[in-house]
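Figure 2 data, in text form.
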Amino acid sequence: MKKVLFLDFDGVMVTDRYQTQLMTTNSPLRDEYGAKFDPVCVECLKLIIDSTDADIVVTSTWKMERGLDGMQRMWQVRHLPGNILDVTPDIDPIHRGEEIAVWLEKWGDECRYAIIDDTPFTDFFREEQLQHLFKVDERTGLDDETARNVIAYLGVPEPEIWKGLM
């Protein structure tokens, strides 16, 4: 069975913490694709991908400007982990649950999924999606704890790399 991560960017991969760090070192906050991703969050995403072989479906509003091809190109240029399988359709950028539901109507029987988002409002998702939702703090984004929870949820034991971190 295919495993899928519905992934938001702002607040999940782009964090206040990293943007502040870039500003204090006078480093560029953006590249040609947008705000730079927090390397800590990228490492956490890598752990999920390496442990589950999940593909990524972009839910972020970034998809509206760049589309699937642009997201895939950004992933290659930035050397990000995993594979961008698709983007959700553009229906309602606030209530992502509707966009996810439409995507799942086509592919849902063939996948197990997790949603990673920073929204503080669960009503942005459908009730049946809440068990798949892993909320992160927008200031720090995707972290080790969330990564472990997503990996466990997708039915994969913790990777060997964490044994040395405990």
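Caption note: Helices lie at 16-24, 39-52, 62-77, 96-107, 144-153.
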